[in-house]
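Recall that a protein's primary structure is simply its ordered list of amino acids. Everything else, from secondary elements to tertiary packing, is in principle encoded there. The following example makes that idea concrete.
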Amino acid sequence: MSETADHAPAETSELEQATRLPRGWMLPAAIGGVAGCLIGALAVAGMSNPGLFAGGPDFAGAVEECEVSAEGFLVLDDGEALQLDSKGSDVWDSGTEDFAQIACVLTGLEVPGAVISKIDSTRALDGRQDDSWDGVAISWSYHPDSGVDILLEKER
C-alpha cells in the first residue's frame, strides 16, 4: 500500500515532543489554582475584617475608634467582653448620656440590625434579653431609672 501526501504519517518535531506535557498535570494544577484562590480570598477577608482571625471582635479598638468618654464603657476580661451603660433618669445612675457613642461602638462591632432592633424595643418588664451572632454573645436590659445596660462577650 502506497502512502500519498494526503495520508502521510504525522511527524512531530523534537521541540514539540519536549514541550508537550503529559495529561497528568491537569488535576494537580487545578487543585493548586483553587487552593490559591481560597488562600487569597481568606487573606482579603482577614484584611477587611481584622477580628476574623484574631479571635473575634476588637472591643477595645471599637471603643478607641469611636473616641468615647470613659463613663459608660468598660472593656472586661482582657478584651474578651465589653460593657456599655447609658445613664437613666435616676440621679445616682452612672453611664453615658451620649447615645451616639453607644451607636458608634455597636456599628463598629458590626452588631446586626435585627439585634439593634431588639434592643430598641426592649421594655423594663422584659427583663434581661440575649442574642448571639458570629461568635459574639450579647445581653441587655432596660429600665427608665437605670438606662440601657449592654454586655457583649466573645463566645468560648
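The first strand starts at residue 73 and ends at 76. The CA atoms of residues 34 and 97 lie 51 Å apart.
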